[in-house]
Amino acid sequence: MLQTSNYSLVLSLQFLLLSCDLFVNSFSELLRKAPVIQLVLFIIQDIAILFNIIIIFLMFFNTFVFQAGLVNLLFHKFKGTIILTAVYFALSISLHVWVMNLRWKNSNRFVWTDGLQTLFVFQRLAAVLYCYFYKRTAVRLGDPRFYQDSLWLRKEFLQGRR
Amino acid sequence: MGKKQVRPPRALPPVPSAVQDDVPLNRPKKKKPRPKSTLVSTSLDGLVQPAVHRPSEDSEQPTKATEHPEAPVQKRHRKTRLPLELETSFSQKKASSPSLLHSENGTDVEPAEEAVIQKPRKKTKKTQQSELQYANELGVEDEDIITEERNIPEQQSIFTAPTGISQPVGKVFVEKSRRFQAADRSELIKTTENIDTSLDMKPSWTTRDVALSVHRAFRMIGLFSHGFLAGCAVWNIVVIYVLAGDQLSNLSNLLQQYKNLAYPFQSLLYLLLALSTISAFDRIDFAKTSVALRSFLALDPTALASFLYFTALILSLSQQMTSDRIHLYTPSSVNGSLWAAGIEEQILQPWIVVNLVVALLVGLSWLFLSYRPGMDLSEELMFSSDVEEYPDKDKGIKASS
Predict the structure, then answer these.
(1) Mind telling me which residue stretches traverse the membrane in this protein (chain B) (predicted)?
(2) A20: left (phi > 0), else alpha (psi -120 to 50), else beta?
(3) According to the model, what pLDDT value does residue A41 have?
(4) Model ipTM?
(5) Residue B382 and residue A120: Cβ atoms within 8 Å?
């Protein structure tokens, strides 16, 4: 059974990482006096996303549903979050690499092209969706029903065996 | 008399076990009553009297008895009373306790034993009633009471701690300030029961409560960002139109004045739009596409607001390039300027229109949300009973499989 204190701690960490992500997304374009600053911000953002992915998977592994062997059920329930997080992580790294590649020598240079603008829009939109879905999943995983046996789970298990 | 009945076993010096073992074999008929007498005798002395007697103790025990003149009277009185309590729980063990006899040789106990055996059966009800009072964790359990002496070889008795026959007492010894103090069992039971009930009444803080409180906290942040965003967007568009002058005649002034403000505002707008969009999605439970789509088709104000926020977000992000261009503004006369002469209006006009549209969308969303500020489908669906939720998912799984 998930302890309340542990869950509070994990949830705080997740929200902290989400806040980091949102902050970098919002102000990384502004904080570009030196290319190193932007590079560090991008690295922090990518690590935050990676940590969030690790944490959410650890939370999945901690559920009774997962331990009962119903991985498919868990994936089906949170597939939106898993896919979106993966897509967002890929988009973020692509954008970061592209932007840093263009701005490394002169951070105040006008680097925008249509391709970069498109990638930027998609990455930022994915960030909002990722934030929403991730937050929802993190909050939902606090439901005690994921951590105990239930009639519903037994039905699912029987269906899975067939 | 009772003293005499009790004392003979104690007075005996330890006998080699081989000799003792032979005794019961010779007189097997007396096995059954004798354990009873030993129970009585040992329970009379309580914890003080050891079950296995050493020769050194034999000289001490009689002196203790003489020090307390009323002791023999109590003993005699208890002799008839205490076995009654013991009878109910230990009658089964009598048969298995002939070994107790081995160290005892009280042969003239039989008449008293008969009385002892008969009386307990009459008083079992009383003893059961009294035992019912302790029917909780502080109560006396049969397992806790040692009824028979351990069949320890006599030669080891010198080195082992004396094992007595225990019995339930009305007191509980509670450790207070490194000392055990006797406390009344029934009072202690009452106090512990009160604690239990108070604990039961206290609502426990579960993970669901944590999740719910976090969700509500974020809704508060979202509520703040909705209003702040609407205000910021309106202020921004007012500033732009004021700086641009009548019929956008003074665009160079706008660029010069606004270039320091363009990028910070763009960043702030994204932050607030992201927060507002997430909050609006939370309200319509966007993850449940069917529910969100249904409420959108029903022209639910909250669903419309979330759609407007998302549109505003896309429009705002699409102006990132222009914002950066404004941010890097230098007059066209300066070498390497991004702003060639004559293209100012061509670039700025759509940008101003988009900003105007964003301000309108954000303002409208705020109005729509304020129409039903308390609406939150996520909280209703996520934190309510899962009875409704799981069947939906069951259908989904069946459909997918």
Answers:
(1) 223-243, 263-281, 293-315, 348-369
(2) alpha
(3) 95
(4) 0.94
(5) no
